[in-house]
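Run Junction plakoglobin through structure prediction, thanks.
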Amino acid sequence: MSMPISEAEVKVAEWQKTYYAADSGIQSGATTVNDEDQSDISAKTFTVEDCSADFEAQLVLTRAQRVRVAMFPETLAERETLALSDSQSNVQRLTEPSHLLNNAIVHLINYQDDAELAKRAMPELIKLLTDDDQVVVRKAALIVSRLVRNDASRHVMMQSAVMMSAGLNAIFTAGGIPALIHMLSSPVEAVLFYSITTLHNLLLHQDGSKMAVRMCDGLQKIVPLLKHTNPKFLAITTDCLQILSYANHESKLIILASGGPESLVSIMRNYNYEKLLWTSSRVLKVLSVCPSNKPAIVSAGGMQALSLHLTGSSARLVQNCLWTLRNLSDAATKQEGLDSLLHILVTQLGSDDVNILTCATGILSNLTCNNTRNKSLVVQRGGVESLINALLRTTVNQDEAEPAICAAVNQDVAEPAVCALRHLTGRHPLAQTAQNEVRVHYGVPVVIKLLGQQHYWPVVKVNVHKCKR
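Sure, done. The structure for Junction plakoglobin is below.
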């Protein structure tokens, strides 16, 4: 017989039908949720399962497909691309070099296409640049300007001498030189650099440019640029000065009036960029034959500055410095502080190079003229023996040389060498020592031998004076 169910038991039975019958939370610690929360969990679980299905689809790709995806992603369809994971696979990491190669090949193809385009367009552009109509020339120049912004096109045009010539001619005929000279006053560094570079190219390759620059007072604008400190800029600037001043006396005087000698000597003293030193020494060499510039260079310390580079590794720089010193030496007989130069010159008397011998003997001859201190220094450095040895080598080589060559050597080497010996053997405290060294080192037979050969009269005259002593 069933017992009647109380009201409390009915409530317990209803409670057991709820979520808590499965887990009250006392043992597991689960939180209480309602029906709405339960439905949300089901929806989220469905979404995760859907993503898992897409991921499984990627795993079924064949090996060939995975390699294709890694090496050539551009060949994928859009839907395939979207399915890729953000993280790199091992295959993708291994194929990074192939991606770089692929990109390089694409760039190379584009580069070749640009070069071919410029090459095909060049003949027509050259024709347009040389047209008599300035409007046509202007439009052609605009096209060239656009093309040279591309590396491939620019390199193709730079390799064409005809194109460069046409471009320079277009700049010249359009009145480019006055405009370039005006831009040399610009405070912008880039404008200055491009202006002087263009002027330099015009001076080198375009007829009439030198006169045009002089007529526009270009020298007065170029010389102040020597105050800049960029070595490459200065190298171009000094080369422009050399081109403009060579064989032009008026240009040399303008450079002098603008303070050029002092700036050039300062460059020789303070810089070590070989090309700049070489171009600056070329300008000084040109100016050193000008009677007005010569004392200005010497007064600015040109002898000392040039002597700093006589022992360097650049043969062309050494040659330029020696010739410049030879030209200046007759104006530097009273200069002080030349001890180092005299020592270097005595050392260079041992060279077999005729040019070096010519310069060294010539400089020593001038610097020992009426200068007691220089005479004594040269004697102390072994200059007498070195001069005699230089004469011995010269006379031995002349026995096997052509008569014309002998005459040139006698004029350039023998005369200044004998003059230097004459200076060293008289009128200074070590004169007697020098005379004894001439005898000891067989200098007398050498001098007598020179008397028996065909020489210019100055050599004979000097030898007679030397024998007398």
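Residues 333-468 form a domain with the Leucine-rich Repeat Variant fold (CATH 1.25.10.10).
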